[in-house]
Structure formats: C-alpha cells, structure tokens
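> Could you send the ABC transport system permease protein prediction when you get a chance?

Sure thing. Input:
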Amino acid sequence: MLKNWLKIAFINYRKNWLSTLINILGLSVGLCVFLLIFIHWQDEKSYEQWIPGKENIYLVENKISDFGTMVVSSYPELAVSKEKFPEIEDYTIANIWSNYKVRLISGSKSAFVSSCRASDSFFDFFPLEKVAGSYKDAISDKTKITISEDTAKMLFGDEYKNCIGKTITQDIPNSIPLVITAVYRNPEQNSVFKPGFIMKNEGLDNKNDSNLQWTNYSYIGYFRLKPGTDIASLEKKLSDLMAEQEKITTLKRGQKYDGKKKAEIFLTPVGKMKLDAKSEGIEKGDKKSIMILLSLSALILLLSGINLINLKTAQASQRAKEVGVRKAVGSTRSKLVLQFLLETFMICFAAFIIALVLIELFLPVYNKFLNKEIKLNNPSVFIYSGLLLIVFSLISGLIPSFYLSNFKPINTLKGNFSRSRSGVWLRNSILMLQLIISSFFMICALVIHSQVNYMMNKDLGFKGDQVIQIQFKKTDGQNDYNYKKYIRLKNEISKISGVTDITGSLNSIGLGITNASSVQNAADTTQSIQNVLLGAIDYNYFKFYKMKFVAGRDLDLRFASDTITGAVANETFIKKMGWSKNQALGKEVYPDWEKRKKYKIIGVLKDFYFNGVDKPVEPVLFFNYDRNQAKQNMSNIQIKLDKNDINGTLNRIKEFWTTKAEPGYPYDFEFVDKQFAKTFEKFQKQKTLFTMLNAAVLVIALSGLFALSSLLIEQQLRDVAIKKTLGADEKTIIWDLTKRFLTICTIAVLISMPFGYYAMNEWLKDFAYRIDMPVWPYALSLILLLILTFAVVSFKAYRATKINLVKYLKYE
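Output:
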C-alpha cells in the first residue's frame, strides 16, 4: 500500500512539476527565514542560563523622575533593602561595562582587557569556574584582583596557573600593586559576565558620604530572593521606600518634590535580563524587533503554507476521478487522508532539508549583519524545527486532504467536480488571505522606508563630516590628568600636516549621555530641570561643528566672566525652564555638579541631535571644560581633517598615536558622522530586513499566484476555445480570465489596510521624532499589487488565447 501511495505521489509531482517546484522553493524560503530569526531569538534567550539558582537572582532597575529607567542603583538602596525586607537573602554589586578596558602590566607583558568592579559577594552569585586560587576574600579590598584565564595567559604564558600571589599593576596614575588571588574561566555559553579581571569596586572604599546618598546611582545591583517571593509585592515595597527617600533628598536640596513622578523599582530575573530588562540593561538585546521579525517570518511561513493548500485544492479536479475510483473499489476516507498527508509531508520534508542548507549558506552573512557569532549547534533548534515540520505538514496538509477525500464518487466519476462552487470559494478565500499578507508587508515596508529616510535626512544641527574622534585609553597624572593630556595632545596633533582644527568635549556626539545632573533656577530654587547634560567643551566647539545660535553669543576667552560663570543653553533647556530665547539671556542657574555656584546664560544654541534622532533632544548647559571637575573627565579629542588628504592625515595621526601618545595600546578612531549614524543603525537594519522579507513575500505570493492561475486557466481552456470560435478577441478573453484575480486583489488590499495602519502606528511610537502616517503607501500597495497580479495572470491568460481550437473542440 505504501509503495502504491509513493508511486501515485511521484506521478502527480511529475505531472504538476511547476506547482511542486514552487511549493518546495516557497516552503524552503519560508522555513529558512523563520528558522534564521528563530535561531537568533534562541541565542538571545540563552544568556545567563549557566548561572546556578538563576531563578532567584534579580537585576535591580530604577525609574527615577525625569531620568527614566536606569540599570544603576544606589548603595543604600541595595544594603538597606536587604536589612529591611526578609524576602531578600543577599545582594551583590557587579559594575561590568564591556567597552571600558584597562591595561594590566606584569613585567614586560601586558593585557588590555575589560573589567568588572564588584562587591565581595560577587562569586556567591556568579560562580565562574575556578582555575586556580581561592574565591574566599578574593576581592575583599582594593589590593586584590582576580583575572580570567585568557588574561592570565597573556600576562604569564604557559605558567599562568602558578600566578596566584604574584602582583600586577594597572596602567593608570598612582596604581598600586595588585595581588592575584584567583584565576577564573569565563563561561563558554552566552553571557555578559566575561570580564578580563574582577576587583573590588572603588566606590565601596570611599570614606566620604556618597555611599550614604540614596540618589547616588552608581552601582549595578542584584538581589538573591527567597524561593516563592511575591515579586510584584516586593517591587511595590522597594518603590515606596525609594520614593520616600527621594522625597527627603529633594526637599533637603530646597527643590520642589513632584509626587506624581514617584520612584519605581523593577526586578528582572537575571536569566531574562538580556531581553526583558526595563532599562537599557547590560548589552541588552532588541526584544521588540526580534519578536516583530519572528511574527513576520511566521506570516511568511503561513504564506508558504497557503501556497501549498491553494495549489493542492486547485489540483483537485485532476485528482477527483482518482478519488472516485479509489472510493468505488472500497478505499476508506481515513486511508485517503493519510495518503494525501504523506504527499504533503514529503514536500515539506524536502523543503526542510533545502532550508537547512540555505541556513548554513546564509548564517555567516546573517551573523555579520547582526554582529554576532550564532552557531547552528543548539540541539533545541533541531528539536523545535522538527516539531515545526510535523505540525506544519499536518496543518497545511489536512485542509486539502479532507477536501479531496470528501469527493462523492458519483459526482467525480461524472466529471462535474470542476463546476463545484465550494471548490471555487475555498480557493478564492485562501488566495485572498495570501494577498492580504502580501499587501500588509508592502505597506509596512513603505512606511518603515519613509521613517528611516526621514531620520537620515533630518537636519542634525551640526556638521560632523571629516571629523574623527579618538578616545583616551591612558591618563597622564593624578591632578587634572585628562585635562593636561588633552592640552598636550591638542598642541602636538595640531602640528600634523592635514589637521585643520581640534576640539574636545566631556560628552561625545552619538555615544550617549555619560554625565548629567540637575540644574536649579537661581531666582527660584524650587524650579529645576533633571537630567541636564554636562556640556563641558573647548572654546571653539560651536564653530568647529558649525552650530547656530538663536540668541546671545558664544563663549569668549577675552571675557574673564565667560571663563568663570558664562554658560550657553540649548533651546530645549530654556523651554523646560519656561523662558523664551531672549528671556533666558542673563538668567542665572545653579548646576548640581558645582554646589551653589551661579552660571550665567550668555547665549542660546539651536538644538542639535546629540544622542540619535529617534530620541528627544536633551537639555544641555555648555561651559568651558577647565572650570570644574569636568576637566578630570575629558576622555577624547576631536580632529577635523583636510578633505584633500584624509587618508594621509589618518596615517600620520596613527603613527603619532601609537608611538608617542599611547604606545602599547590598540589604536582606534571613529568618524563623528558615522558614529552618530550608529544611533539609528538599528532602524536601518530593520529597514533592510523588512525590505528583504517583503521581497521574499512577493516572490512566494506571486509564484504561487502564477502556479494557481496556470492551473485554473488550464481548466478553462475549453471555454476559451468556445469564446474564440464565437468571435471573442484576445483582449476580451484576457480580461475575462484576469478580472476575478484583480477583484480578489483589491478586496485583499482594502482588508490589509487597517492591520498595516495599526502595526505601523505602534512601531512609530518608539520615535520621539516621527513622520505623520502617510497615505501614499496604502495607495501604492494597491496599485503595485494590481499591476503585479495583472502581469502574472495576464501572461498565462495571453498564452491561453494561442491554443489550438481543434484540440479542445473536436469532441464537442
């Protein structure tokens, strides 16, 4: 029986080779797209799965007034909460920033590696595999350090396991010898906990009162909770405690407390923080984009299944007599269903094998696109994809199987199935669903394309072309060390041929806010702005970037007051203060970063986009960098190059940097305009991915439409022959054969429009600056789909007008 079923299946495959090929290729593409995105999702979910007891360890996040949700906490928040709430067994601190690296030195060898500044209990929470030494009191004071196996190999070679008790130093001013207490092995699994070394957080050794301040958000904290803890209840208690302390601190400062903006604390399981952190998290993944892409890839897979169902049901008339004969000789309906399901499974299995081959081919390109190293070695992926294959085969095979097995022998043997209305209704419904999905994708792709173009073409408020930025990796001295280094580098680099100008700033365009604070109105201290960017800049900063003033003037070295109290505010700052641009001139404010010292506003700068055009412009107060502690934190130099010799100038700067400025350190730079472009790189990638998905959808949909129209038109060739015999011209025949498809296409686009509008409106909510929802993508999707549908169907319809009339009328 099975052999007979297989023989029948291959006969039908060969007979309908075009539709079979389209089914296999369509399913292969659909499965490939879905599995690639599914693999990415599984890779992101796999972070921190190595941590024992991860279900009871939670990342602490804070939503504080105008600062938004932050991944950092204050020391009292962590320490006091542990004592106050019995649900909290312990806490730890682990400040880990993969981009912040330090050079460790041992004799003539060195290692430039990332760091983790932690509290004593770090290894109790995150027990990294120990290679040598002991974790007991391993980082109990600032003279001790633990290093990773890779770092130990760079510093001590093959004898790295014998380095316990040896000393190394950090290449920073006044570095003290650090005793190695343990060597650990970083997890091979996905994890954000892969530092080159771990030592005690310096802030925990401070003798000042900063660690007593509830609003000193400096630490990434984790709680270990008792099993069965009510997380929502604990979050509320923590939030109430933090809100109370925030109120006390605000009133002590003489500021007005807004009870409507109370603090909130969120607890996110460490095993889910990669995707579910409420803040930017630690190397947080883009869960929303992944879920959107996963949903869209599922639609593509559905589209492939629709093709399969549609083509199978369209072939029903060819199989009708076969079914009638089988039933007439005693075959049961269940056996017919199993036979047709087997045929469907064979197509799906062939498509699955091809999809796996395509994944192997495209995975390196996909990894490069995502800047990841995903490998196809996760057994769960094969298990899930195998289950998907079975479920997909059942779902896509059951409809045509039951449909075909339901034929009545008396009708099929008479040959009148082709006139059954139920067959036409089912095919039209499935075709409409296919076109709805195609139209939805086209609308979304056009809207995304418009938004991304809007961001890329927006006036940024600055000119960053031919400007490079180099971050310092090494400092020069104890007092004002970055300031002194900046001055020295500025003087020396200015002598390099091809350098036309140099400037510097505390915060860098396109790299996000690293320093911000609150500012009070000196005339009314209850009026304040939170999260004001520290605009510590060199004097030529505004001219360097060709920024424009809307009122007042630039900082001027000729005026002593400008160097002491002068400040320039941007438009957002004065709007939040409630001033007009002219009212702001001469106003005095108290910045929180310089206690009770007045800054006088002498100019208002036109807003420029500092942190990406998808985010609102932050309030900024600009001042000369050598005024206060800001000069100790200057960490970059910005260099404008002569456009006639960019490559030559870059080579000369590199030679100077690697031989004189920072020998022994890796050299890297970034063009400022490209650095800023990275702020909307995510959305450019979304645009690219959506364009590719849209192309895949159209190829699958139109190829399915071509195969379906071919089958249906072939079933009407006798009618075409009769019409031609009666004198109908080609245009009339083509229109009669295509108008039904065009009607279905129009209805499908109209149905897809509200779904496309809702999806794109939700997507656009992520942008502080967004386009108004355009009408043209909806109209264009209708026009394009009508044109494509007509082109695909009319081609086959035109071929139908060239038939041999005798062949189809000789038996009439």
